[in-house]
Amino acid sequence: MLKRDSLKLGFLLGFLAPIVSLVIYYLLRFYPLFTVSDFFEFVRTNKSQITAISVPCLLLNIALFTIYINSHRDKTAKGIFAVTLIYAIAALLLKFIL
Predict the structure, then answer these.
(1) Which residue from 3, 18, 4, 5 is spatially nearest to 83, judged by alpha carbons?
(2) What distance in Å separates the CA atoms of residue 51 and residue 53, rounded to the nearest whole number?
């Protein structure tokens, strides 16, 4: 399945990779101290944490994008890149507007 070159696969990978990265980040950094709801409340009240959390999440997408570009699966890479841009814009909006 991961060998295919499709835009849908790129969207799926681009969407799931930051979520997996966020779960790993939570487990490594906040798990014993905060419950999941406390963690999201902490992020909501401390806007500086949005950047600290979004960077590792987007790094996994950058790694996936690089892998798919280097293997000449351009449609999948386009999907990953599009979702990465959406995540980055959403993080900026959360940090500066909301």
Answers:
(1) 18
(2) 5
Lookup: tokens for 54:
């979004």
- What pTM did the predictor assign? 0.82
- pLDDT tens digits, residue range 25-40? 889 888 888 898 988 8
Round to whole Å and give the CA distance between 38 and 32.
11
CA distance 46 to 44: 6
CB atoms within 10 A of CB 18: 22
Which of 78, 83, 44, 43 lies closest to 60, judged by CA?
83
Euclidean distance between CA atoms 31 and 34, whole angstroms: 6
